[in-house]
Amino acid sequence: MTLQTPLLVGRHEGDHYHFLNHLMTTKVSSSDSDGALTAMEFVGPKGFGPPLHRHDVEDELFYVVEGEVWFGCGEAEAAHREGSTVWLPRGLAHTLQILSDEARIFQVTLPGQFERFVAALGSPIPNTTLPEPIEIDPEQVAQIAAKHDIQILGPPPNPIAD
């Protein structure tokens, strides 16, 4: 595919993964966009937050579709609800935490490659169910992340009070 090839993806379509105790669905892969971007939807439960990390290659754009999510990047931090957009430039440490019972977020990474990280660390599934939480090996996460130009800098955020 090229940037000039249309792609129409339905609500529940895409490649689904259980990834770090939440659901990731690839909507536009780097191969779909000729390397320009990756677009994914993620759904996570209350309290979910990735470890503090930094992308060396990718910029990230998040759009909160449903729920409330706290984002922290450098000195900037705030909670955002449906309709909010968050831009996280490459090279800056960041994390997030879901504050509502569940949240659905649309994420775009530029340039494309993020879906390869999700596939390498996640488990493919045939549907859009949230995974049962499992123990996560921080060392494994850091090793796979580093192979995808993502540096793990610290643990997930502590639970944020309502």
Question: What does the model show?
Answer:
The protein has 162 residues and is mainly β. It has one domain (15-152): Jelly Rolls (Sandwich). Helix content is 11%, strand content 41%. The chain has helices at 114-121, 138-147, and strands spanning 15-19, 22-28, 38-45, 53-55, 59-66, 68-73, 76-81, 85-88, 94-98, 102-110, 123-125, 150-152. The protein has a 7-stranded antiparallel β-sheet, with helices on one face. The chain has a 3-stranded antiparallel β-sheet with strand order 7-6-9, with no helix packed on it. A hairpin with a 2-residue loop joins strand 1 and strand 2 (22-28). The chain is globular. The model has no long low-confidence stretch (mean pLDDT 93).
Describe what is shown at a glance.
The protein is mostly beta strands and 162 residues long.
- Low-pLDDT parts are none
Instruction: Tell me the major beta sheet.
Output: 7 strands, antiparallel
Name of the CATH architecture: Sandwich
Q: Compute the CA-based radius of gyration.
A: 15 Å
CATH superfamily: Jelly Rolls
Please state roughly what percent of the residues sit in beta strands, choosing from under 5%, 5-15%, 15-25%, 25-35%, 35-45% or over 45%. 35-45%
Helix content: 10-25%
Structural class: mainly beta
Tell me the total number of β-strands.
Answer: 12
Terminal CA distance: 45 Å
Q: How many structurally independent domains?
A: 1
Shape descriptor reads globular
Strand order of the largest sheet: 8-5-10-3-2-1-11
Text of the CATH class: Mainly Beta
